[in-house]
Write a structure and sequence with these properties.
The protein has 20 helices and 23 strands. By secondary structure, the protein is an alpha+beta fold.
């Protein structure tokens, strides 16, 4: 019976009216809510429960509702077997001793039991036979509603699965589209066509984002926005979420600095809404924009799909960047190999030449010098060769000349320390007739003679201040005047300078012009001293002896093992020049025989060998002092022994305060 004592016919009529409401329930908790609402119309009860079997497991899901409370959902509750056969009434007394009665009926569709519907009331005996009959009919209605709900859920799941498969297939098609190309711009219209299956849009763009907020559109699916290729935004190009949705361009626009007419351009092309997502391809920020001609075409729920498409695009860009980087590395390796091959070929060619043209040595430090020389040779850049005296600066300068496009022009060498100050300028710039006493006729200077070729200025640090100022104009403007002249002469010359001084310190002391220093030091190559390239000592010795042998009537037979060891132990303060001079002297003394240690003119005493080679100034001072004592202060003889010019020797005597008082 119901709470209001309605007749069986009335209850049956109410039950008939309940069916549409049950079928229209949106979900199972809602169905349970409808069942609870029939208490006054069909069956009296305190609680209603709906137990449904899982189609894929043995689990049971139970939806239960009492009067006035929310629907409770639980699982794993087993229903007694008798509940699966027929509707019946059973004692459902509670553990607390309260009397309850349950009337239940199975839910069947085409002979398949879907679950059990039960009503609970305080007992005893609230349910009669007519209540069981009504429950049986109600159970049939609920079974129809449950079956309908499950069919709807299955259809929804199938639709979602179809959408998922469509997305997966589109993703695979997108990957196939971009995997075979290095430049995604060439297939971007097709990328848009495939991506449209995942996220509908009318226009697709790919842009690169600079740190200053500039957006450069690198690819587009068409020509709809021909006038839009660059956007400058104030501040960040994207919010922290790394996506941006603009619902309607007719109402709102993107704040930009330029182009100022962005909104008009977009509206003129017919676009109303925009979704952009930002991603990273290696170190490059990339934005993918989805444009639509429909207002409010995009919502936050579209962002995951947009990100997936953007990930595919950035994958293609990363692939392109890696391929470009690999190509650059390969080209760099190829250039390095060609350069090394050219260096080796030129070294071999020059080694076959006599005397000053030879480039001998295979140590890493020396080959590094030659590699740098080869690199700069192909340019017109001014070169500064720095290193101790006798390290081979002129040899490297000639190597640069021979490797350059000026190889057909002259190579003019001028030692700035070998000329008195008053003669250096006239030798360098030339002079006109009558420029000074004895100038009977005009004479071109070394700068003019080097036109079309290379001017090599050795010991440029010894150049006078006046000559420095004049030569600066040669470097800046390629113009100069002869001494005593008034005409500006132009010259096409490349300058290679060399110094054994620390020009930076000379600038600090005010001994060398700073502006000239920076003009000379465009490309600085530091030559290592011979003591730092011991692997080259013996090859150099063999080469020098070969040259000396061609000049002598009785060439030496070679070096003894002890002589070779002596050469390797020496610290060589005079570097390669000292080595050649020493071997030339030894070749005379050995009279055609083998050169032994006694023929070599250096002191292997502990006092000298104990000098630390890291203090180069101390080594040089000690060597000059020793040689001066040996030759009894004969400066000409000492200069020859040391491999220096007399002017260079005078400068070092002053530098080390060794002038005899």
């Amino acid at each position: 019976m119901t709470d209001d004592g309605a007749t069986y016919a009335q209850r049956l009529e109410a039950l008939q009216d309940l069916l549409p409401a049950l079928v229209a329930s949106r979900d199972l908790p809602g169905l349970c809510e409808h069942l609870r609402g029939i208490s006054l119309q069909v069956l009296a009860h305190e609680e209603v429960s709906l137990a449904l079997f899982d189609e894929r497991s043995d689990q049971v899901s139970v939806y239960s509702a009492g009067r006035g409370g929310p629907v409770a959902i639980s699982s794993g509750i087993l229903v007694p077997p008798c509940d699966l056969h027929e509707a019946h009434v059973v004692d459902d007394s509670r553990p607390d001793g309260s009397a309850w009665v349950r009337v239940s009926a199975p839910l069947r569709i085409d002979g398949t039991v879907l679950g059990v519907l039960a009503f609970h009331a305080r007992g005893p005996g609230p349910y009669a036979a007519e209540d069981v009959a009504l429950l049986r009919r109600l159970a049939d209605y609920v079974a129809i509603a449950v079956s309908h709900r499950r069919s709807a859920d299955a259809a929804k799941h199938a639709a979602a699965e179809r959408d998922r498969m469509t997305t997966v297939e589109a993703s695979m098609e997108l990957l196939r589209t971009i995997s075979g190309v290095l430049d995604i711009r060439t297939v971007f219209p097709h990328v848009s066509e495939v991506a449209r299956k995942m996220l509908p849009h009318d226009f697709l763009t790919m842009s690169f984002h600079d740190r200053d907020g500039t957006i450069v559109i690198e690819a587009a699916s068409g020509d709809d926005l021909q006038g839009l290729r660059r956007i400058v935004k104030p501040g960040r190009s994207h919010p922290p979420e790394r996506f941006f949705i603009l619902e309607d361009f007719a109402v709102k626009s993107i704040p930009v600095i330029e182009p100022e007419n962005l909104q008009q351009l977009v509206l003129a092309a017919g676009f109303r809404s925009l979704l952009t997502v930002q991603a990273s391809a290696r170190h490059q920020e990339i934005g993918v924009g989805f444009w639509s001609r429909t207002p409010s075409a995009f919502t936050p729920s579209d962002v995951p799909l947009a990100r997936r498409i953007a990930d595919h695009v950035t994958l293609a860009v990363s692939h392109e960047q890696l391929a470009t980087a690999a190509k650059s590395v390969a080209e760099a390796h190829a250039r390095a190999e060609r350069l090394e091959s050219r260096v080796n070929a030129l070294v071999c060619e020059l080694e076959r030449q006599p005397a000053r043209g030879r480039v001998v040595g295979h140590s890493d430090s020396w080959l590094d010098v030659l590699k740098k020389a080869m690199q700069v040779a192909a340019t017109e850049t001014t070169v500064l060769l720095s290193g101790e005296s006798g390290t081979g600066k002129e040899v490297v300068a000639r190597f640069i000349h021979r490797s350059s496009s000026r190889v057909g022009g002259p190579f003019v060498a001028l030692n700035c320390a070998a000329l008195p100050e008053q003669l250096l300028e006239s030798e360098l710039f030339g002079y006109e007739r009558g420029a000074f006493t004895g100038a009977q006729q005009a004479k071109p200077g070394q700068i003019e003679l080097a036109s079309g070729g290379v001017l090599f200025l050795d010991e440029v640090g010894e150049m006078s201040p006046s000559a420095q100022a004049k030569f600066l104009r040669v470097l800046q403007e390629r113009e100069f005047q002869r001494l005593g002249g008034t005409r500006q002469l132009t010259v096409n010359v490349r300058v290679i300078a060399a110094t054994n001084r620390e020009l930076r310190q000379a600038v600090t002391r005010g001994e060398f012009r700073e502006d000239l220093y920076y003009r000379l030091q465009v490309f600085d190559i530091k030559l290592p001293p011979l003591r730092d390239r011991p692997a080259d000592i013996l090859p150099l010795s063999d080469a020098f002896l070969e040259d000396i042998g061609r000049a002598f009537g009785r060439p030496p037979a070679g070096l003894t093992c002890d002589a070779r060891d002596s050469l390797l132990r020496h610290t060589w303060p005079g570097n390669v020049r000292e080595l050649r001079n020493m071997l030339e002297r030894a070749a005379i003394l050995c009279e055609g025989g083998l050169i032994a240690p006694k023929h070599l003119a250096f002191d292997m005493s502990p006092q000298v060998s104990a000098v630390q080679t890291t203090d180069l100034g101390a080594v040089e001072r000690a060597t000059i002092a020793r040689v001066m004592e040996e030759v009894h202060w004969n400066k000409a003889l000492a200069a020859r022994r040391l491999g220096l010019t007399r002017t260079q020797l005078y400068g070092r005597l002053r530098k080390y305060q060794l002038e005899r008082r």
